[in-house]
Specification:
It contains 6 helices and no strands. By secondary structure, the chain is an all-alpha fold.
């Protein structure tokens, strides 16, 4: 009896949950657009970091103030990444976990969050090292590492944007392909 009551309750509340999910999707900016925009920001920061690494190598002296500015920009982008993290969590929580597609989409968000977080943390650590060092060669190496990790963040954001666009379009082959890359 209890199982039957739970089933009936779940079925009767499904339209309300679906309507709430639809309302949330309309009110919030599209996730792929947010991901694309942030990927562009990370690519610009990567270019700046690369050029500073080149300058340090050419001058053979550390550029502490420039490294501090890059670290500040990285921290600003990290705060925006936190918003993306929340958006991915929100998307996962809005899914119907009783269906396989809902569970898969929630897992996609979890995988994507991890894919972004690791290189973002590594980029920040490398920039912190570049600020603290007094050696030009060590700073150049740290800046190059930071730029590489920033590129990985941008690539991960691009992949997530592509995947969520595929989910919106409902293309099963494209979804399977990007899901495989996420995993």
């Amino acid at each position: 009896k209890l199982n039957e009551e739970v089933r009936r309750s779940r079925e009767s509340s499904r339209p309300a949950f679906d309507a709430a999910r639809s309302a949330l999707q309309v009110a919030a900016p599209k996730l792929p657009d947010m991901l694309d925009h942030l990927a562009d920001k990370f690519r610009k920061l990567q270019d700046k970091t690369d050029s500073k690494a080149t300058q340090v190598g050419e001058r053979n002296q550390p550029l502490k103030e420039d490294a501090e500015k890059l670290l500040d920009q990285q921290e600003k982008l990290d705060r925006r990444l936190q918003r993306i993290d929340k958006a991915l969590r929100r998307d996962g929580n809005a899914q119907n976990m009783t269906q396989k597609d809902g569970r898969e989409r929630a897992r996609d968000g979890d995988d994507g969050r991890e894919m972004i977080r690791q290189p973002a943390d590594a980029a920040k650590e490398a920039l912190e090292e570049s600020v603290e060092t007094d050696s030009a060669s060590a700073q150049k190496k740290s800046l190059e590492q930071a730029a590489e990790q920033q590129g990985k963040v941008a690539d991960a954001l691009d992949l997530l944007a592509e995947h969520f666009r595929n989910l919106e379009a409902g293309d099963p082959e494209a979804i399977a392909e990007t899901r495989k890359k996420l995993r």
